[in-house]
Structure formats: structure tokens, C-alpha cells
Write a structure and sequence with these properties.
Radius of gyration of chain A: 19 Å
Structural class of chain A: alpha/beta
Strand order of the largest sheet of chain A: 10-9-11-12-13-14
CATH topology of the largest domain in chain A: Cytidine Deaminase, domain 2
Helix content of chain A: 25-40%
Strand content of chain A: 25-35%
Oligomer: homodimer
CATH architecture of the largest domain in chain A: 3-Layer(aba) Sandwich
CATH superfamily of the largest domain in chain A: Cytidine Deaminase, domain 2
Amino acid sequence: MPRPELTDARRPLTYGIDAVNELGESVPTRIAGEHPLTIYVDNRELVTLMTLGGAPEALTIGYLRNQRLVDAIDEIAAVQVDWQVNAVAVRTRGGRGIAPERVDKRTVTTGCGQGTMFGDLMDELERVHLPGDARLDQATLYALLDAVRTHESIYKQAGAVHGCALARGGEILMFVEDVGRHNAVDAIAGQMWLEGLDGADKLFYTTGRLTSEMVIKAAQMGIPFLVSRSGLTQMGYELACQVGITMIGRAQGKHYLLYTGRERFER
Amino acid sequence: MPRPELTDARRPLTYGIDAVNELGESVPTRIAGEHPLTIYVDNRELVTLMTLGGAPEALTIGYLRNQRLVDAIDEIAAVQVDWQVNAVAVRTRGGRGIAPERVDKRTVTTGCGQGTMFGDLMDELERVHLPGDARLDQATLYALLDAVRTHESIYKQAGAVHGCALARGGEILMFVEDVGRHNAVDAIAGQMWLEGLDGADKLFYTTGRLTSEMVIKAAQMGIPFLVSRSGLTQMGYELACQVGITMIGRAQGKHYLLYTGRERFER
């Protein structure tokens, strides 16, 4: 099955404005781009995402994947972004769009800290099996944290974005930033589909908090290790225990807290 | 018109777990609560929010307000949270629930960095008029930042939450934290409705980034000043210019950057 036809329509990621500081001085300031991107599937409007615009095709595919609106990359024939109209046209191979009942499911659960991915996803989690024999040692974790630290980033220039990385050992395979951390995760999920990558031997790094949603998405990508610079929530913790993911937070420099899945981690 | 019947069903906000640090030491760790809360309006399921649970009634009302599903607090007869079933039952005075076309509108636009509040909201913004004569001086801004800094917070204990404050001058009137910053803003919008507070003489403070959505919500609450510890996005900037809000970012201690609406600010 051929890879979908894709545009490569990334936007400039930062812009310059003038601000005034506490001394009354004019301060040239870089700011992160933010653009509406309305997804149309077989000509039917689905949703408008606000995005940095750094990986709009992968974001679109990952959104369809993570919202469970498409079951396999093979179903997607083309993803074509047109910033003239802030729209992305998705063509499915069937050409019949997305079943209304699936879209309706989504509507009840989409959101941010607002039930995204909730509902049946909880049941779906029961079917997720993460490899028990995967291992991560402290030196590899530190190598990953160092790779993230030294990675070029919009955040360093402009702030106001969240970053996610997919890594094998200490090596970053993908690094995506976006104004919504949901988008950054979705874009990585989309890129993994495009490259046919499996999660079993990977690590997922996020600058964002380890909420229920982040754990659910990592588990659905089949990734046994979830690492964050930030902390976690109670439900993120409970779901990580339930699904058996190895979750590490407050990870920066040579410090971290190992929360769950200790059996996979070697100091 | 009487105030809606409300429960007062706040949850414990933090929980304790044991983590292991880089030295192999067990580290007792406080984590923020996160609970699903499914909103039913006149017995019809609307959405599931993931929330800290600190202000579930105000959150529910503010969600209905900010999603434009209810036009006035008077339409709400009761908001009753039952954590036994992670649900909140909203009773409207009409008892007819929410018009389907409104719910459908929401579905295309709900999200996080995923088009929340987009669509017609952009048109609505044209109708927002923020008071031109409101003024903020540097000393008052510093007083607010100090009040926020010294405010008791979940964030200090457990991290993984965003905080928002409604202030008059340097005085905090409301302070809400939640696992989703959308929720924190919505809870303040709901509390403002409950207390019949107008935004014209208020400041809105958020720990979160100044994205398009944050600017739209502050403008819709009629608040002329938006202050954040974080930075801003391009669309947040463009909307702030368009709606004429005074936006200040990177605000901490005695530092800040004034981005827009300079005419209202006095050093």
C-alpha cells in the first residue's frame, strides 16, 4: 500500500514583535506561531486545530489516529495542507469519510484536561500490552535528557510551546513542538504511522505534565517508557500503574523521580 | 431570579505517592488530583472533563458559559456534583436541555490548542468592547504578582496544575487551579457569573501561555488586562491587538513584558 500523498507545508515557526519591559525599554521578542488548521476529511469539516504549523501533515494523521477516527495509515490516500485557507484536505481510500458515530464519540470526549481520549479509551487500555522485557538504565536516561537539552528548540527562542520527543535509547528520532501539547503528541503518533515505527523499543519524552491523557497516548503508541520534565497527576499515576508503563518525571540534568514500572529501570 | 442550587463537592486536591530518585532513595511525593467529571444537562450527557475537582460547580457553569451553551446564569436552576459516579447534573429552568445545533457547534471547536472556542467566536470578538479608560500602573502590577507568589497553591505542593486569578488592582478575588488550564479559566468565568461580577475593573492572571484561546476568554469576560507568567503566541498577540486588550507576559517579581494595549498601562 503506497504512502499517502503529502504536502510539506510547514510554516515559519517564530515571529518577531516589539514589547516594552519594566524599564520602558523596547524589547524585540520572538513569539511562537499559532495558526488555525481546519481538517476536512473527504470534503467534510471535522475540527479546527490551533497549531504552530511545524508538522501539519503528521499532526493531521496523528489526530485522526489518536482520536480513533482512522484505524490504519493505509486508509489515508492524501493529506494536503493549504495555508492560504488554513485548511488540510484528507482523502481516504474509501472516499466515504468518517462514520458519523465515530465523530459523535469524539465530540463527547475531545478537550484539554477536558476529557480528551476518555470514554471507551479506558476500555481500550485494557487491551494494551507493553513489553515486559524492555529495559532502561540511568546512563541512557541521562543521555536522552542531554540530547533533549541540547536539541534546537522553538521553546528556547520563543517559549509558549510544548515539546515531545520519540527516542530509541538516548537517541532522539523525532522532536516536535507545538502550541498545544496534544498536537505535539499527535504529530509524533502520525509520523510513527508514516514511518511504520513500532513503540516497543522506544522512549517517549514530553516537556508537559504526566496527566491521564499523556499516559493513555503513550500506551496506545505501544511505548513502555514515558519521561517528563514535569510532574504527574493522580490519574496519570493510576493509569500508569494499570497499564504497566514505566513513568519517570521531574527528569532534568541528572535528577529524576521514577514513579511506576520500576522493574524495567536499572540504576 | 434565585441563584442556582449548588452542591459544594470539592475533592481533596493532592495525594501522596512514593517515588524513587536517582540515588535509589524512596521519595514521598505529593501529586495533584485528577478526576473525570461527566456533565449531564437535563439528563443528557454533554462532555467529560478531567479536573482537579477543586471547584466542580463553578467549572461546570463556566464551561457552559464559555462554550456558549448557556446564555445567562438565570437559565441554570441547579448544579449538583456526585463524585460517587463522577458526574454533575445540571438542571436548566426551561428543562429542555441544550439545543442540538449548539452542541454540534461545540464539537467542531472544542479542544486544547485544538481549536477550542474557534469558529463563530472570532466573529463574537468583534462585538467585544473593553473599557478604554481602565488603567494599570506598575506598582499595582507588582502588588498582584506578589499576591500570586505568596498565595497558597497546589502547584507549590504538587506541580502539574495551572493557576488563574481574578484580581481587582493588586487584590486577588478568586484563585483557581486545575490540571487543565482551560478548566481554571472556565471555573473563574463560572464563579464570576455566580457572583454577578463584571470584568471591566478586573485583571486576569494566568500561569499559562497567552494563546489565542486565553485572549478570547479574557475578552469575553470583559476583562481589559491579561497578565501571565509565561509568554505568548502569534495568534494570541494578533487577537489581543484586534480586541484591544492590555496583555503583559513574562511577569514575575519585578519583571514583565508589555505586549499590547500600552495606552492603559502607566509605569
